[in-house]
Amino acid sequence: MAYLEVIAGLVLLVIAGDIMIRGAVSIAENFGISKLVIGLTVIAFGTSAPELVVGINAALAGVPTMALGNVVGSNIANILLVIGLPAIFYPFVCESSEISRNYFIM
Questions:
Q1: Any idea what DSSP says for residue 94?
Q2: Residue 53 contacts residue 60 (beta carbons within 8 Å)
Q3: How many angstroms separate the CA atoms of 56 and 62, rounded?
Q4: Do 36 and 14 contact (CB within 8 A), yes or no?
Q5: How many CB atoms lie within 10 A of CB 67?
Q6: What pTM does this model have?
Q7: How far is CA 10 from the centre of its chain?
Q8: Measured distance CA(26)–CA(40) in Å, rounded
Q9: Model confidence over 7-63: pLDDT tens digits?
Q10: How many Cα neighbours within 13 Å face the side chain of 35?
Q11: DSSP letter string over 34-72?
């Protein structure tokens, strides 16, 4: 039963994500706003909302370490998926000055 729930959750996540992207593009087109601005605001909030809910619930339940773990795990996953996974398929070269600057920013 748990496997079916996970599969159903993933299917709903894909469908809801597609609807959210279409809605954000529609907002951008209707109001003449740059798709970049919409991506940085609406999509960013939509993808961070579940983490916010988990953090609030954890804090209200008196388990602040769960909220902290959620934030740290999310950032690790985002870095892996946004930087690491594409680098496997298309490696990129950085100069030493760029690497030190990126370390500072990270």
A1: -
A2: no
A3: 10
A4: no
A5: 19
A6: 0.50
A7: 15
A8: 15
A9: 998 899 889 888 888 888 888 888 888 877 877 777 777 777 788 888 888 888 888
A10: 6
A11: -HHHHIIIIIHHHHHHHHHHHHHHHHHTT-HHHHHHHHH
